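Chapter review: from sequence to fold.
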Amino acid sequence: MRLWDLPGAKRFIESACAPLRAGCSVVAQFPGEIPAGFEEALIASLGNILSVGRFHGSSSPFEDLCGRFTTGSRSRIRSLQELCEDDGFLGRLIWLEGLDEESWPAWRAFLSRYAQASRSTPLLGRTLFVAPLADPAHCDPPATDVALVTRAWDGVPDELDLLLYANERLVQDSVSPVLRDLLATTVARVASWDFHCANRLLREGKRNILAPTEVLRAIAQEKGWTQETPVGWESGTASQAGVVHPARAALDNPPREIERRVWGAQASVLLPRIETWRHDTVEQNCFGVRGLMRRAGMEDVDPYKLEIGDLASLFEQRSARRGVRNRVRKLRRARNALAHLRPLRPDDVLRLIEANDA
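The token string follows.
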């Protein structure tokens, strides 16, 4: 599964294709960098309705477009209206490349004027533009027009997309269903909206997924981020909703946001599972549990309703089986840690699952 196979990425592609089919040019804003495969995914979804031509952004859009695409001498094209109607220019999708803070102001003005001029051109022959921008801090989008729209890459993919992706990747590994669920949930919670971060964590193995801070700090170093790097969508260090990129959050000392995300994944997966394991422990040792309860004066209590702490206290008696006693101790320690917002260490997680999910 690729990025562009995920539901959120597909929705973004469709949100860009819909205005193109309606005769509008599209400005696509990306924080940091343009995701690999964007052009291929959009063109494949759009279908063969337009001839695609790539054009490197320059500081003289009108003159350079006339020289590249029109028929005859460029000097005979004197207005945008004449450009829109030229046979050599009609019916194209022009993909703009290399737009930066130097070339963008000229293109920003051109696209706004072109949107107004192209309205009178029949939809079937209207040439459209796609302008991907990877520097939103210095490249403000033009105002929305009837024939010009902006699409911002924000919250794409989302946490559910990454959970789906991580589950598909992990199903190929020989791990228990509980561990796979925990690993996938941790990847999705930690990466939040960054596909490449999720990919990196999945490559690093289960211990680094369960304790991801060092991997995330390595990613931050590769990106050139420090604690002084501002947090914002324009620089790729946060979503527009303010959710901090995991690699940037990992630079905090201590990395409380990463710890919170890891804890959230563990709590959502392990707390319900601990309750299931508590119930299974009672069921598998029902005769012994009832004997321990009689000694403790608890004959009238339903053993299946015992809290994990009460169950652990019963099994501290000398007559209790040692293996079961140790198992219940681990369940109580894990439950108490998670109940107090403390994430479990990787070794503790792996031992807990191994002891109870056989």
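Two observations follow directly from the output. Residues 256-284 form the longest helix (29 residues). The mean pLDDT is 89.
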